[in-house]
Amino acid sequence: MDNLFKVDFHTHVISEDFLNLAEKYGDERWPTVNKTCSCGANILVNGKNFREITDQAWDAKKRIEDMEREGIDVQVLSPIPVTFSYWSDPEKGLELAQFQNDFISSLVKQHPKRFIGLGTVPLQDTELAIKEMKRLYLELNLKGIEIGTNVNGRNLDDPTLEPFFAAAHELGVPLFVHPWETLGKERLRKQQMMYMVGMPSETALAVGSIIMSGLLDRYPNLKICFAHGGGSLPYLIPRLDQGYHVWPHIRQTIKPPSAYIQKLYYDALVYDKDNLALMVERLGTDQIIAGSDYPFLLRETPSGKAIDQIDHLSNEERRKMHGLNAMTFLGLNSNDYTANAHNESAIER
Q1: Where does the Amidohydrolase-related domain lie (predicted)?
Q2: Quick one: 333 exposed, middle or buried, by C-beta within 10 A (0-12, 13-18, 19+)?
Q3: Which residue in 81, 74, 75 sits closest to 100, CA to CA?
Q4: Whole-structure pTM over 0.70, yes or no?
Q5: How far apart are CA 108 and CA 325, in angstroms?
Q6: Domains in the chain: boundaries
Q7: Which secondary structure element, helix H or strand E, spans residue 347, and what is its range?
Q8: pLDDT tens column, 253-283
Q9: Domain 7-14+56-348: what homologous superfamily?
Q10: CA 42, CA 44: separation in Å to the nearest integer?
């Protein structure tokens, strides 16, 4: 496995000079970044500490040092989901999305062999979301969009969102779906249950909504990847198929749910080789992409650790999941990155 090309598809980034819309608009619901030292900060929402972050969240040099230490060639950068702010006025939401997209684009321009960028859009307004999709994809050279698992309680199969998916299909823009605003969040306040139980359940609901909606029949080239291994989806596939067989109204609109599973992608962030082996069995190795959730506490270290713990994988299957599948999903050529990634780091040192 010498010279294994590794992509960490699931990493988050935020500017240390994050746009302070809470102050600008007098509304503490907007997330803000409060620096606590040169090496860290708190993300505040509604005046309360939402999450502590380190300077790895914004410092490209620190990220690249970590990548070198962990053998990662390329990180795919995406916003922190709390910043989606779909609840907001659409024009103000667009303002924040554009700030983030410009910031991520600037990091990619500084380190084009180490970083690939995903942007964000104000999905609460489909027209504005499509407009920003075109800007970030065609002008900023970001390679896809991270979206939430719901929009103000509307599942991703909501008819108002279909024009967005149609535009992504037409332009060939890959979509990375990340949980946020989880269902039942009022019951998940203790012991970090939102992160450990709520997010996997929320993600499975998002996958199920896409599959059951018929979107993948109407837009067969739509490229969607789901975070955290698709949540609880791999364990629910037989139940989805059973529902298909017992309820005739479902059979009138789609094929068996399992027929769509391999039309989608999933990151490998499930922490456990047995869980990942079940994903491989049910989803296939062509659909799984290594991702760590860097730089947060729940991350897998290093990215792809569980992939390397599965004994029966071939070298080619490992290559796919560690890096090649990510490049296929994003429509990129790994040769454009492998040749110069470590040379760039050597120059920086």
Answers
A1: 7-332
A2: exposed
A3: 81
A4: yes
A5: 20
A6: 7-14+56-348
A7: helix 341-348
A8: 999 999 999 999 999 999 999 999 999 999 9
A9: Metal-dependent hydrolases (3.20.20.140)
A10: 6
